[in-house]
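Give me the fold.
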Amino acid sequence: MSNIIVCYLFTKFDTSNSIDQFINHYTEFNAGLNHKLLICYKMLDSESIKFCESKLKNIPHTKYVDTTEKNDFDFGSYFRVCKNYPNNKFFFLNAKSYPIVNNWLKIINNHYKYNSLVGTTASYESALTSLKFKKFYKIFSFLLRFIRFKNNFNKFPNPHIRTTGFLVNAIDYIEFYKDKVCNNKFDAWKLESGKFSITAHFKSKNYPVIIVNLDNASFNLKFWKNSQTYNFLNQDKTIISDSHCRKYLNLNTNERLISQSKTWGE
């Protein structure tokens, strides 16, 4: 067996439909590579965990209960899981994510290099550039918000790996997160796409940061859009589907163009 752990994170904020969808897709699409499946439960009571485990009874997996009472979002849970399995590579999935092609894990792992960060979707979107000034009487609160965002985010283009459906070595993730905190949604945004995000961390060390698609092709930062995995054209080369991927597919042509421009520019 390889040393890859697929970690699926399910929290009290997620619905049973999400875990049903994950189970259906995980069993339908062959990973193509030996791995361990770890189901990480967070902020759930024992009855809820028991209910989820009953759904997973026919799927070999390891149960991991994140006992933290604090909601430090996906990032904190990923950190604790990595500390418990420091000699493994992790492929992380949030509750609304699942594979949609065969050999999904094999394709992703094909492009893993030592110390690399391998994602299945990415974006150039900037939380700073996306700020909108709407009402004049709110100008002071807007200015305060603008300063806060300017201190924490780069303007567009702001390349970052989206933090579901990514492969990373446990030790590398521990190194990234060890001096971080995630107390709220704003902190989570910073960790995904801020000036000191996981992407920025890997880039600062000159580690490879790449996107892969179902053609078994890899793309460096400059060509991420061409992977056709997220908010571009028909987005038909995606390996892992998540809620935002599915939202794009439900947009009309004009709405897709707007979303594409926000994600990748004109």
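The first strand starts at residue 4 and ends at 11.
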